[in-house]
Amino acid sequence: METLLLKYVKEKAGKYIEPTRQGTAKGDPIGFSAVKYLTTLLSMTSLKIKEIADASGVSYGLLRVWRTEPDYMKMIDSHITEFSGRFIRNIFLILEEMKFGEDYALGFEHYEKMYKDVLDISIYSEDLLESIYKQAKQTMIPDFKKERFFTLFLSFAYAIRKSPITCDCKKEIDNGFIATLYSGQTDNSTFSFIEALQRPWTPDAKNAEQIKGDFIKSIRKL
């Protein structure tokens, strides 16, 4: 199952053309190598430096040096901004699929799509979560119903991070996960959509570890 994040990393890494020295003046930087570029993509996650180094096949020491370079950190910021926009657009794509005449027909398949797209949100970095949140707040939606569902899906994504669905998505939803989450009651504890969008965005540790392991395995196959 490929999430939005994994698709983005694969797409950007796959399309990246490694620069060569030819045509570059002696002493001028020639840009990022393919592996260096890959590590900037992985730096959008909450993976530790050593985990990023191991996943990409570079030394821990070299990665630490790269992370002191302004251009390197600027590249990470550009990925975060771009991916945040893609995350927001994906919610609007789901809303378009829901459009039924002048209204919106919300069904299980829409929650399932969002769930599969952001299954690994538990390993998004704090900077990435903050960027998505800020872009969402700045998004103007004149249609009240559309805005309500936009907030619903955004909150659902963040709720997965804080109170992850651990079983089959359809089974969870059929058993009333969405209904109890929406009403603010899940696992005998108060949990509202408003809370889902409040800090701290701390993920379930056990679930996050499993998600992280699967993500790293996928990266090593690139």
Structural account:
With 222 residues, the chain is mainly alpha-helical. The protein has one domain (4-220). The protein has twelve helices and four strands; from the N terminus they run αααααββαααααββαα. The protein has a two-stranded antiparallel ribbon. Strands 3-4 form a two-stranded antiparallel sheet. A hairpin with a 2-residue loop joins β3 (185-186) and β4. It is elongated. The two termini are 15 Å apart. Residues 179-191 have low confidence and may be disordered.
Entry keywords:
elongated; single chain; two-stranded antiparallel ribbon; mainly alpha; 63% helix; 222 residues
Short description:
The chain has 222 residues and is mostly helical. Helices cover 63% and strands 4% of the residues.
> What is the makeup of the main sheet?
2 strands, antiparallel
Largest sheet, spatial ordering of strands: 1-2
* Quaternary class: single chain
Order of helices and strands: HHHHHEEHHHHHEEHH
First-to-last CA distance:
15 Å
Topology:
Elements: H1 4-15, H2 34-42, H3 49-56, H4 60-66, H5 70-98, E1 99-100, E2 103-104, H6 108-117, H7 126-138, H8 144-162, H9 169-174, H10 177-183, E3 185-186, E4 189-190, H11 193-196, H12 205-220
Antiparallel strand pairs: 1-2, 3-4
Helix pairs in contact: 3-12, 5-7, 5-8
